[in-house]
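From the shared-data thread, chain only:
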Amino acid sequence: MTFKQIYVNLPVNDLDASTSFYVALGGVPNPQFTDETSAQFALSEAVIVQVMTHEQFGRFTSRPVASGAIESILALPAESKEDVDRLADAALKAGGSEPRPAQDMGWLYNRAVDDPDGHSWELLSYDPSAMPGAPE
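Structure, as tokens:
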């Protein structure tokens, strides 16, 4: 079996604020799956984000919809350290927040940005061949 895409579904409080954030993060809106209760963005060919109002999100589960607590940290690779900074800065200008300082380990550079609802995204650029202990 081969998986081709991942669809990340997130409950949000303010659909317009979330739309601004995900467009700034480089998301391409998909009007076919966007209405007054949800919006879809392609972050890459493989990563699709669907943001939904809490009410709409609740229609897909019988469990309570979480709010406030961190549930996961989602990671997105970028081409370079400069791309990480460009995307993070754009996301911050669009209403995101930065929960911690950037991390630069030499072989890996990342910045964390939270969307307006606190969903955490790690933007990273890395070279696994430069990782300590990597095969020559």
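The two ends are 32 Å apart (CA to CA).
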